Amino acid sequence: MKKIKYCCRNFKHGSKSVFKTLKQEFPDLKQKKKDCLSNCKLCSKQCMVMIGKSEVVVAPTAEVLYAKLKHRIG
C-alpha cells in the first residue's frame, strides 16, 4: 500500500486514534501527518485520509475509517 497521509486538523474528528492504532498494528506501514491536505470541505465534516497523492478515503466515524483502511491493507 502507498503512504497514508493524515491531516492534523482532522484529528479532532477521530483520525488520530486511527493513526495510532494502525501504527501499533502495522509498524512497517508508511504513515505521515501533514498540517493540511487541502481537502477542507471533506476534512471539516468527517474522518478522512489520503492514500498516495490523490486518493481520498472518508468515513463518518473513526471506527468506519479504520475498518476501511484495514480492509485495504489486507
Spell out the key features of this protein.
74 residues, alpha+beta, four-stranded mixed β-sheet, 3 helices, 4 strands, 36% helix, 24% strand
Would you write up a description of this structure?
This protein has three helices and four strands; from the N terminus they run βαβαββα. The protein has a four-stranded mixed β-sheet, with helices on one face. Helix content is 36%, strand content 24%. It comes from Paenibacillus lignilyticus.
Structural class: alpha+beta
The counted number of beta strands is: 4
Radius of gyration: 11 Å
Percentage of residues assigned to helices: 25-40%
Query: In whole angstroms, how far apart are the ends?
Result: 10 Å
- In DSSP terms (H or I, runs of 4 or more residues), the helix count works out at 3
Overall pLDDT confidence: 95
Strand-residue fraction?
15-25%
Low-confidence segments? none
Organism: Paenibacillus lignilyticus
Protein name: DUF1450 domain-containing protein
InterPro entries: DUF1450
